[in-house]
Design brief:
With 425 residues, this protein is an alpha+beta fold. The protein contains ten helices and 14 strands. The longest helix has 27 residues.
């Protein structure tokens, strides 16, 4: 074994080498001026090496403490790495100014907006516009914050100013169309869905007609469903509500009734959604299905979702308690948004039974309390496109493999498609 003296010597040599390397690195950085260091910092940051980029940027600020663009860019690198407090600390000398520096205000706007704090985001937008009232990006930011706060009339006033200067700007036009649509409180929705079974069963259909209204406390929907399956017709009426509870918190409430075998006699649901920092959303609640003759059961459910730029990721789980052990199912969804929130393409998938999807249940229809135990998987795609400023069209296609209730272990394939049209007024 090496002696303690040899270990001490090796350790000392290593420390000296590290100090020497750092000194050489510092000496090498000292040879550059602020602009050169800024360029190196930007290049490293955009290449994904933000730690190294910040070394260049902080050295540049040492040389030129009043170089505003460097300070703003350094703060933005902290924001990219989910360190808003560090970004604010970096911008402190600029935030104390009156009016606030425009670039610093944009960083603070993003910090609040990405955290779903639209009130604070609007405050920073106004502070930035105090510095430059005609800045295009900050005017767009202000309109976005007003839209999130459902202050559409004020948002349209801002967008009208922008359209006078930039009449063909796609971002401005998209927001203007979205706000115009959002101001309309009523909607009528009609949909037609078809299931094609790979064997044994004939094809099935589901038609729905829905009225929706947006109120001061949230949206409500009344819906009638009619289905033809297993050579049987059935109908159901449903009501949905999405009441607002508090800032960033809303609920989902559902009740449905049907006297026929193709739907539960009674179905009910409740769920609470909460907006979380950094564009996350989570929820928790239940679904209850009752088929008559004391054959009802409750399923607990929850979701976790995340917005990332123009993408939405979501996962939903259902857990059904049972004396033989809880049954579980999982649903996944990814959406890519385009011009606005009404224009997207999505991919869905999942495993296990979900009461929010159409599934083959039994040869008598939707009548057994054992359906949640069946094995299944599904995958699908959907696409929604606005048509004009009042219509929305949605098309979906999918495929599922569902275990038979009366022949457990054997499966049937189900190819599905649907078309939905919504008119807003």
């Amino acid at each position: 074994m090496p002696s303690a003296k040899i270990i001490f010597v090796l350790f000392s040599v290593s420390c000296l080498a590290l100090v020497s390397a750092n000194a050489q690195r510092a000496d090498s950085l000292a040879a550059y001026n602020s602009d050169e260091l800024f360029a190196k910092g930007r290049s490293a940051s955009f290449d994904g090496n933000r730690e190294r980029g910040r070394v260049y940027l902080m050295k540049a600020l040492e040389k030129s403490p009043g170089y505003v663009e460097i300070r703003v860019f350094l703060a933005r690198t902290y924001l990219w790495d989910d360190m808003p407090d560090k970004a604010k600390e970096t911008l402190a000398p600029l935030l104390d100014q009156e009016p606030v520096d425009l670039g610093a205000a944009k960083v603070m706007f993003d910090a609040a907006y990405w955290n779903d704090d639209s009130e604070t985001a609007l405050l920073w937008a106004n502070k930035g516009l105090d510095k430059n009232p005609t800045d295009k990006d900050m005017l767009i930011n202000k309109a976005k914050a007003l839209g999130d706060l459902e202050r559409y009339d004020e948002g349209l006033e801002v967008l009208d100013i922008l359209l006078q200067r930039f009449p063909g700007d796609k971002t401005v036009l998209s927001l203007w169309e979205t706000f115009k649509t959002a101001r309309r409180a009523n909607s009528i929705t009609a949909s037609a869905s078809y299931d094609f079974y790979s064997k044994i069963f004939g094809n099935a259909s589901l038609y729905s007609l829905q009225y929706g209204r947006r109120t001061s406390i949230g949206s409500i929907f009344l819906r009638a469903n009619e289905s033809n399956r297993f050579s049987t017709n059935g109908w159901q009426i449903e009501a949905d509500a999405y009441p607002s509870i508090a800032k960033g918190v809303y609920a989902y409430l559902n009740y449905g009734f049907s006297p026929t075998s193709l739907f539960p006699n009674h179905r009910a649901g409740g769920e609470v959604y909460v907006s979380l920092p950094w564009a996350f959303e989570a929820s928790g609640g239940f679904r209850y299905l009752y088929f008559g003759k004391d054959s009802g059961f409750i399923m607990y459910t929850g979701t976790l979702g995340k917005y990332y730029r123009s993408l939405w990721f979501s996962a939903r789980v259902f857990i059904t308690p049972d004396t033989a052990g809880a049954s579980k199912s999982l649903g996944l969804q990814v959406r890519r948004y385009f011009s606005n929130a009404n224009n997207y393409v999505g991919i869905t998938g999942g495993f296990g039974f979900s009461p929010d999807f159409r599934n083959l249940q039994s040869n008598e229809g939707f009548s057994s309390s054992e359906i949640y135990k069946l094995k299944a998987w599904r995958i699908g795609m959907d696409y929604q496109q606005p048509v004009g400023d009042r219509w929305l069209l949605l098309a979906t296609v999918g495929y599922a493999s569902q275990e038979y209730l009366f022949d457990v272990g054997n499966y049937v394939g189900i190819t599905s498609c649907s078309v939905t049209a919504r008119y807003q007024f």
